[in-house]
Amino acid sequence: MTVDEFLAWEARQELKYELVDGQPVMMTGGTAAHDTVRGSIYAQFRQAVRGRPCRAFLDMKVVCQNGNVRYPDAQIDCGSTRDRDIAAAGPVVVAEVVSPSSTVTDYIAKVRDYGTVRTISTYLIVRQDEVEVTVLRREGDRLELSEVLRDVTDMIDLPEAGIRLGLADIYGDDTPSTPNG
């Protein structure tokens, strides 16, 4: 399927799908931990961009230059996305909450896919089962590992959106164990 064929097809579906290597892949539901972390990231993104020319999204598609279509768990879009659009016009930060079943996809396939979107400067891979955020930043035409944060007091600088995001804000009162704890 091409991107245009997929977008027309998905608009007629009751369930949500991603387009991966020309094939539609149905999105599955997550755990309570996944949803809690995802919601916290979105809430922090939304609060941080208030009054700025950017918007936070939960269920907005990202069309990758390699023909794949992804739904990040949360994102900051600083493009000219209009209310009726079905895909982000200028995503700058995307976040995925990783689960045991999505590890390979989040750490390999989505790094490749999001790396093709020139506006994306930061990709956050957030663990749901322990305090750990892997931060990848744009280096030329790729997303490269920048840092791995494991302390609830750590902060993530997101200069592309003019904000700082604390791990305490992501994990809140539901802080999972740390790898060494």
Commentary on this structure:
This protein is α+β, with helices and mostly antiparallel strands and 181 residues long. The chain has helices at 3-10, 32-49, 103-115, 167-171, and strands at residues 17-20, 23-26, 55-57, 62-63, 69-70, 74-77, 91-98, 122-127, 133-139, 142-149, 155-158, 163-166. Strand 1 and strand 2 form a beta hairpin.
Topology:
Elements: H1 3-10, E1 17-20, E2 23-26, H2 32-49, E3 55-57, E4 62-63, E5 69-70, E6 74-77, E7 91-98, H3 103-115, E8 122-127, E9 133-139, E10 142-149, E11 155-158, E12 163-166, H4 167-171
Parallel strand pairs: 7-8
Antiparallel strand pairs: 1-2, 3-6, 4-5, 6-7, 8-9, 9-10, 11-12
First-last Cα distance: 46 Å
Strand order of the largest sheet: 3-6-7-8-9-10
Biggest β-sheet description? 6 strands, mixed
What class do helices, strands and sheet pairing give?
alpha+beta
Q: Report strand %.
A: 25-35%
Q: Using DSSP, what is the number of strands?
A: 12
Uncertain segments are: none
The radius of gyration computed from the alpha-carbon positions, rounded to a whole number of angstroms, is: 16 Å
**Average pLDDT over all residues:** 92
Query: What's the SSE pattern?
Result: HEEHEEEEEHEEEEEH
Query: What is the number of helical segments per DSSP (H or I, 4+ residues)?
Result: 4
